[in-house]
Design brief:
alpha/beta, 10 helices, globular
């Protein structure tokens, strides 16, 4: 069975409306010849850009995500965005539990779980981000941390919704301007642990859940990451924020993986 690839980027608090729509149009145009039967492409821009971003692209070519979401449909939650609001602007997926939400804004695993369940109940794909800190890695508890984040974050998820669950493994120490990429072997080791935990939770259906690696992905480590057996795609940071560079990285990854799997490497 041919492998399906997943490529996406979180634009964080960068790019205004004009910059976001220009970027998306260029990215979709550049990658338009790549079959979406083989690849899923997604971009997660800032909240103020979502409506304009949604109307400027074909969602069959590029899914549009939100960086966060309150689990309630409405209420006295100043500064929050509800699932109904995200539906209205044409959002396809919701990113939940990004390390900045956890470690800068203090979100907990039970809070991420509430968001996952709400996202699924409102028809979104839920991209649950997990990852250990440098301190947790130093203590040798990376697997335990990931298992906890998965078991709590996915608590009470119905198996009928598993085709809308995605996992992004982003080591906290590997994200941002000062981030250090995980070695391919370490990334694969953690992805294998993630896959094992998902299988414990959901049995054979776990194979339907894509697991992406994110954390200082760049053209230099793309090849060695994408060929790892338990890495289904790449969640790319600043290396994806120029459409031409992201297009090149995507094509490089697909070519490398297909060549590797054909036995020619």
């Amino acid at each position: 069975m041919k492998k399906r690839f997943y490529f996406g980027s979180n634009l964080k608090m960068y790019k205004n409306i004009k910059e976001t729509t220009s970027y998306l149009k260029e990215l979709v145009d550049l990658t338009g010849d790549i079959s979406r039967e083989d690849m899923t492409l997604f971009i997660i821009p800032s909240f103020p850009t979502l409506a304009s971003a949604s109307s400027c692209i074909d969602h069959s070519l590029c899914l549009l995500g939100a960086q966060n979401m309150h689990p309630a449909e409405q209420g006295q939650f100043t500064g929050e965005v509800s699932p109904l609001m995200l539906q209205e602007v044409g959002t396809d997926l919701v990113m939940i539990g990004h390390s900045e939400r956890r470690h800068v804004f203090g979100e907990t695993d039970p809070e991420e779980n509430a968001k996952v369940l709400s996202a699924l109940s409102h028809g979104f794909r839920a991209l649950l981000c997990i990852g250990e800190t440098a301190e947790e890695k130093a203590y040798g508890i990376s697997r335990e941390v990931l298992r906890t984040q998965l078991k709590i974050g996915l608590h009470n998820v119905n198996t009928k919704d598993l085709d809308r669950i995605w996992i992004a493994y982003e080591p906290v120490w590997s994200i941002g301007e000062q981030g250090t990429p995980a070695s391919p072997d370490y990334a694969q080791e953690m992805h294998r642990a993630i896959r094992k935990c998902l299988t414990e939770l959901f049995g054979d259906r776990a194979k339907d859940i894509p697991c992406l690696y994110g954390g200082s992905v760049n053209p230099q480590n793309t090849d060695s990451l994408i060929i790892q057996p338990d890495i289904d795609g790449l969640f790319v940071g600043r290396a994806a924020w120029e459409a031409q560079k992201f297009n090149s990285l995507i094509r490089q990854a697909i070519h490398t993986s297909e060549t590797f799997n054909s036995g020619r490497v």
